[in-house]
Each structure stands twice: as structure tokens, then as C-alpha cells.
């Protein structure tokens, strides 16, 4: 988030005070009137939309709530007193995760203008091609003299505006390449289109027999089809760094004159005392000066167990305050916070991955100059042979048209579209145009723990070890807390059909646990040190103490995601090196690695550590697939050769990844590698088909035997063959 520009010091304080006050009032009014924007990473269907909208619209003070499934966001128009935390709690109660986003940080939602533009140009080119082909049939059937000329002029009237409009994507791309002294696939395409039209106009004006209007339109249509398929294989990528910045809390409560005042985060300064309520996300980096609580750091560090927070402890922007109110002295605000620095890491990593060159681009580097040289040699050769510019130009145009890369233009997008459809049926969404190419090269898989291999929610492991009375008392105490371990205990005991004991005076001490009285004795459920237990075990636990008795531990483990064991086993059997990297404790990471049979693991890793490890593997010559879901994974996801995130991941992680796992099952990850390798084989087969086509067609063109009919049929045949070969992948 950008720093707020400081107003210049005025020689007349009274002169500058009024404008400054007005500006501040305007900013506060904007906050007061702003719509609340929520990120909803777990919604996936129309039923989710209905449930979320009903819940939000039923909340007191909400005027209107609308959900966008594509962006996974909700826009809420509410009264000034309604806070994002209230709405987040409302959605949590019906089972939906939500995070507040700063709408000012996110660029205005863009519709798929590029896709609609390509589709419109494709439709125009297709309609024009059909009409000109109908006119050409008369010419091919033997129309001569004035009749043939009339059909040619009508074709020209249709072709010229169509080519000018539909071919613009190729013209712009070719011009951009030529301006920088480079060649790409669009340069021969543009040259072929322009030369075909110019030659056809010249032939028509001289009452010639042949014109290439139909071939030029067919060429444009097929290439636009390939361009549109390529566009459809990926989502309109939003910047992961932008999503990260949007997760910074847009508003905060600052202590001024003893009162809590809500202000934009942009107005906070180092040294301000900020109040963070239970359930709220930290808006700044700072130090706790008052209050005790527990912090959820799972999205930032991957730690599954909430961390105790008390006076003097350092906190980072983006952490969630769970149980008690805190007051924090800001030590870093705006662009200096750890969350913003993480966004900077992602931006750098994204720019590095963009240097990948696709197979089509590598082919273009060889193909484009070859086509130009061949066409030029044909022109020179025929001119020297006939001393007729018209004949030489016609043959040069025929060479350009018949060798123009229709098949090459379809080779990659046709396969990626077929492969994307296959993977989509298995629950995976391909976002990036080169993701399959990069996935096929993977030899190392780096896996995050919390939220990826595991579901990020604790699961009670020793329910059967406790007496029924202990379970009844623990349930009564756990139901009074929103702590993740208390929720897991409540769910497990309730599912066992056990009712809570009659515990009176239940209170929660933030950061420690809950206490009450049962049968005249004090009972506590919470931290080991608080209940008087010796914390010797490394396993996550909540302790129950009943006065006069030894404390008893309720132990928890992180619930394994479905398909995690199968995915790791399949990857290992396929010869991939599997590495587990997590911000969680060494004991938890080692236990999971042993359980899944992963030999290489790294614990207590910061976001910078994950990024550094991925970059180190790349420097060793390895092609890394990164699978992760949290903020702490985002930089590594962006830096990896290719990356996957679950649909339940935070928006920033999903945006940084190339592939999204739509379901909760991890097993399709290994299948995706097989599909990617098959796709690359099909792409290379398509390149070979295009090469054979050119070997056959080029001699015809150079020999002057490529009439417009032959050129149109040859292009169509090669394009259809490539498309049918791609469909074999399904």
C-alpha cells in the first residue's frame, strides 16, 4: 500500500488547515460510505452464491449484497455501523471462509474485453470468408470476363474492411516485434495477409484470372481461431501482488484522546496505538502494549496452532487476533509492513517466471525468417526467369500464403484446449497458456503442509482415552470458546453423542482458556501452563484440569487432505523428488513427512525461506512444481517453474499459481503430470504434421502451381488435421 504523501509545510497554518481538514473529512466520508468487499475463497457454485447472499442480506444494517463467483468476492452495501468483522462472522457461522479486501487497492473489475474482442473479430472473419468462398465457387466453376471481374470486385469489397478489422491483433503484434528489431509468428502472417490482398487487388484491376481474397480471409479466420483458443486456456490473470496488498486491512481503530477512532490505514503513522478486536486482522507491524490473546498465523507462516500473544510481543500485519482485545504500538505501516514486503517478493518472482519462452515462440524464431527467405528467393528466381514482376509477385504471395503458419498457429492452442478440458473433468483448472508445457518438464515437487497436504483444521485424536465425565466437562468449557482447538473438541465430542455437563460461571481468559465450576470444584480447559500441567509432549494439546485431580491432555493433529497419500505415492513412483516445506514446527512437519513417506522436509520456513529454496532448486537445474495455499507460499508459487493451489487457497495464492485444484482431493496432481507429458507429445506431433505439410506444399508454391483454390484447401486440410490430432488427447 502506497505511503500517503505529506502536505508541504505552509507559512500560514490557517491557510493550509482548512484544505487539510476538508481532505481528511473527504477520506473519512469515503470510508464511511464505502462498500465492504469480501474475498470468499471457498465458494464454488450457484448454491454458494444464494446462501452467502441470503446470509449477508439478512444481517442487520445490510442494504444489499451481491456475490461474483468468477472473482469469488462479495460486494456489500451497508449502514456505517456495520463492520467487515461482523459479516465475516456471519459467513463463518454458515460455513464460508471470508476475508476483507481493500477495494481501493484492487483495480476496477475488468470484463474479458480481450476475449470478446477476439471472438467478435473471429465471427466477422468467418462470416466474410463464407460469403467470399461462395463467390469464389463461381470463379472456380469457370466464370470468365466481366462476370469473373464482378465477383472479384465484390469479394474485394467484402475482404478489405474485414481484413482491416479482423487482422488487427496480428498487425499490432507484428509491428511491436519489428519496432524492436525482432521477428515473431505474426510477422509472416501479417505479410502474407497484406501481400495476398495487394496482389489480389492488382490482379483484379488487370482482369486477371486468380485472386487470393478467399485465401486471405480463410487464413485470418483459422489464425484467429487459434488465437482465441489460446486466450481461452487461461484466465485473465490478476496480479498476485495486487491481491496481497488488498488483504491489508483498509481501516483500523486508533486510540486518540482515549477513544477508539476508525480511520483509513493510510492515515496511520509509526508510534500510533492501534486497537485490534477479537477476529480482526492486524493492520500494521507492531508490538503489543496491552491485552492478551492468541494469534492465528497460519496464512502467513503455516503454523497450525495459535500462538499466545501478550504485552511486549511483536506482531505482523495480516495475522488474525483470535480471542482477546489487543492494543498494538505500530512499528511499521503501509509499504514498510511485512505483508507488503511479501507482496514485493511476489512481484519480483512473477517477473522472473514471465521470461519463459513457449514452444510456439521458439518455433517462430526459426520459422518466420525461413518463410521470408523462401518467399523472397521465389520472387527473385521467378523474376529472373520471366522478367515479369506480376508473375514473380503472384508466386511470392502464394508461397507466403501456403506456408503461413495456420497449422503452427493451431498446434499449441488446440492441444492445450483439449488437455485443459481433460484436466477440468478431473477437477483442475489451467490458468496460464504455457502451464502444460512447464508442467511436463517437472522433476521436483515442493509441497506446503498446512492447507495443502492437510486441511488446516485440528482433529481430536484421543477421544476414546477419556472418561465420559471428562468429555462432558470439557465440552461445556469448549463450547464457550471460539478457539480452533475448542471448536475441534466440541465437534468431536458432540459427534460422539455426549451432552455437556452442568458447568456454571464459565468465562474465557483470552490467550489462556476457559474456566468454570462443576460440582463445587473449579475446572479449566486451556494451555498447559495455565492448568498446571507439565508441557513435555510435542503434540498439539488442550488440557483439562479438575481441582484436586491431575490434568488430562486432549491431543490434536492436523486433518489430512483427501488424496494426499495417493498423490505423494504416485509422484514418488513416477521418479519425482518430493520435498515438504512448511512454516509449522519441526515436530509437526517431521511427523507428517514420516506419515506420507517424504524423505526431504524443511520446517519453520518463512516466506523468504520458501522462495529461496525454490530458487536454489532452479539454480541446480531442477524444474520445480510448487503446491501451496497460503500467503507464505505466494512468492514461492510465483517463482516456481509451474505452480498449483487448491480452490480453498487464499485469493493471492490462487492468482499466483498456474493451475487451480477445484476439488478437495489432491490425487489429480500426479495425473496432471501425465496429461501434460501427453500434451507435449501431441504438440510436437502437430509441429511434425505442419512440417510435412510444408514439405509437400512449398514445392507446389515455388513451382507456381499453388492456385488460390490449392492454397485455401491446403491451409484448411493442415489446420483440420492438427485439430483432430489434438482431440486424441481427450
Description:
The radius of gyration is 32 Å and the shape is elongated. Among the domains are: 31-101, Alpha-Beta Plaits; 249-336, Calcium-transporting ATPase, cytoplasmic transduction domain A (Distorted Sandwich); 458-559, 3-Layer(aba) Sandwich (Calcium-transporting ATPase, cytoplasmic domain N). The strands form five sheets. The chain has a seven-stranded mixed β-sheet with strand order 14-26-25-24-15-22-23, with helices on both faces. The chain has a six-stranded antiparallel β-sheet with strand order 6-5-7-13-8-11. Strands 16-21-20-19-18-17 form a six-stranded antiparallel β-sheet. β25, α24 and β26 (659-661) form a beta-alpha-beta unit. The chain is built from 26 helices and 26 strands. The protein is α+β, with helices and mostly antiparallel strands and 730 residues long.
Amino acid at each position: 500500500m502506497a505511503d500517503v504523501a505529506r502536505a508541504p509545510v505552509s507559512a500560514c497554518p490557517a491557510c493550509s488547515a482548512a484544505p487539510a481538514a476538508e481532505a481528511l473529512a473527504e477520506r473519512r466520508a469515503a470510508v464511511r460510505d464505502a462498500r465492504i468487499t469480501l474475498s470468499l475463497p471457498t465458494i464454488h457454485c450457484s448454491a454458494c452464491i444464494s446462501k452467502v447472499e441470503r446470509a449477508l442480506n439478512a444481517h442487520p444494517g445490510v442494504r444489499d449484497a451481491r456475490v461474483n463467483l468468477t472473482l469469488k468476492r462479495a460486494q456489500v452495501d451497508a449502514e456505517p455501523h456495520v463492520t467487515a468483522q461482523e459479516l465475516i462472522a456471519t459467513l463463518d457461522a454458515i460455513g464460508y471462509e471470508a476475508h476483507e479486501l481493500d477495494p481501493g487497492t484492487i483495480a476496477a473489475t475488468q470484463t474479458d474485453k480481450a476475449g470478446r474482442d477476439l471472438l467478435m473479430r473471429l465471427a466477422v472473419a468467418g462470416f466474410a470468408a463464407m460469403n467470399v468462398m461462395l463467390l469464389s465457387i463461381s470463379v472456380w466453376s469457370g466464370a470468365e470476363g466481366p462476370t469473373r471481374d464482378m465477383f472479384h470486385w465484390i469479394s474485394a469489397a467484402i475482404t478489405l474492411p474485414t481484413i482491416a478489422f479482423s487482422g488487427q491483433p496480428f498487425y499490432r503484434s507484428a509491428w511491436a516485434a519489428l519496432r524492436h528489431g525482432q521477428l515473431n509468428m505474426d510477422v509472416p502472417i501479417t505479410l502474407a495477409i497484406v501481400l495476398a490482398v495487394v496482389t489480389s487487388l492488382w490482379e483484379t484491376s488487370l482482369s486477371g484470372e486468380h485472386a487470393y481474397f478467399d485465401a486471405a480471409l480463410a487464413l485470418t479466420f483459422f489464425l484467429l481461431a487459434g488465437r482465441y483458443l489460446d486466450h481461452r486456456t487461461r484466465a485473465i490473470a490478476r496480479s498476485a501482488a495486487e491481491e496481497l496488498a488488498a488483504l491489508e486491512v483498509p481501516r483500523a481503530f486508533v486510540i486518540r484522546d482515549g477513544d477508539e477512532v476508525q480511520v483509513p490505514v493510510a492515515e496511520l503513522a509509526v508510534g500510533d496505538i492501534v486497537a485490534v478486536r477479537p477476529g480482526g486482522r492486524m493492520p500494521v507491524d507492531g508490538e503489543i502494549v496491552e491485552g492478551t490473546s492468541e494469534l492465528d498465523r497460519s496464512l502467513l507462516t503455516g503454523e497450525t496452532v495459535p500462538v499466545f500473544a501478550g504485552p511486549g510481543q511483536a506482531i505482523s500485519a495480516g495475522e488474525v487476533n483470535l480471542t482477546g482485545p489487543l492494543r498494538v504500538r505500530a512499528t511499521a505501516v503501509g509499504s514498510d509492513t511485512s505483508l507488503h514486503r511479501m507482496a514485493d517478493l511476489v512481484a519480483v518472482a512473477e517477473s522472473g517466471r514471465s521470461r519463459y519462452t513457449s514452444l510456439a515462440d521458439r518455433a517462430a524464431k526459426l520459422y518466420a525468417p525461413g518463410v521470408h527467405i523462401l518467399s523472397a528467393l521465389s520472387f527473385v528466381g521467378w523474376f529472373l526467369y520471366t522478367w515479369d514482376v506480376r508473375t514473380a509477385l503472384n508466386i511470392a504471395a502464394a508461397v507466403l500464403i501456403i506456408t503461413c503458419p495456420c497449422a503452427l498457429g493451431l498446434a499449441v492452442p488446440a492441444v492445450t484446449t483439449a488437455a485443459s478440458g481433460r484436466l477440468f473433468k478431473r477437477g483442475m483448472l489451467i490458468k496460464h497458456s504455457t502451464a502444460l508445457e512447464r508442467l511436463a518438464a517437472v522433476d521436483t515437487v515442493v509441497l506446503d503442509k498446512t492447507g495443502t497436504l492437510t486441511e488446516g483444521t485440528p482433529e481430536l485424536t484421543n477421544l476414546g482415552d477419556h472418561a465420559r465425565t471428562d468429555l462432558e466437562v470439557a465440552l461445556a468449557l469448549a463450547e464457550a470458546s471460539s478457539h480452533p482447538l475448542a471448536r475441534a473438541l466440541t465437534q468431536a465430542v458432540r459427534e460422539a453423542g455426549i451432552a455437556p455437563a452442568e458447568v456454571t460461571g464459565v468465562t474465557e481468559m483470552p490467550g489462556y482458556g476457559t474456566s468454570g465450576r462443576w460440582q463445587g470444584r473449579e475446572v479449566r480447559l486451556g494451555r498447559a501452563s495455565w492448568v498446571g500441567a507439565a508441557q513435555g509432549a510435542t503434540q498439539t494439546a488442550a488440557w483439562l484440569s479438575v481441582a484436586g485431580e491431575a490434568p488430562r491432555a486432549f491431543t490434536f493433529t492436523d486433518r489430512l487432505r483427501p488424496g494426499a497419500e495417493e498423490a505423494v505415492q504416485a509422484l514418488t513412483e513416477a521418479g519425482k523428488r518430493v520435498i515438504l516445506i512448511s512454516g509449522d514446527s519441526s515436530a509437526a512437519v517431521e511427523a507428517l513427512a514420516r506419515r506420507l513417506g517424504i524423505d526431504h522436509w524443511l520446517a519453520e520456513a518463512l516466506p523468504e525461506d520458501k522462495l529461496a529454496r525454490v530458487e536454489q532448486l532452479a539454480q541446480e537445474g531442477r524444474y520445480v512444481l510448487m503446491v501451496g495455499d497460503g500467503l507464505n507460499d505466494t512468492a514461492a508459487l510465483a517463482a516456481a517453474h509451474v505452480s498449483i493451489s487448491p480452490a480453498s487457497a487464499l485469493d493471492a495464492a490462487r492468482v499466483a499459481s498456474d493451475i487451480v485444484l477445484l476439488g478437495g482431493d489432491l490425487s489429480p496432481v500426479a495425473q496432471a503430470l501425465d496429461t501434460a507429458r501427453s500434451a507435449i507429445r501431441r504438440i510436437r506431433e502437430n509441429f511434425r504434421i505442419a512440417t510435412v505439410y510444408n514439405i509437400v506444399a512449398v514445392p507446389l508454391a515455388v513451382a507456381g502451381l499453388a492456385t488460390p483454390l490449392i492454397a485455401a484447401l491446403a491451409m484448411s486440410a493442415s489446420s483440420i488435421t492438427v485439430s483432430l490430432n489434438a482431440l486424441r488427447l481427450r
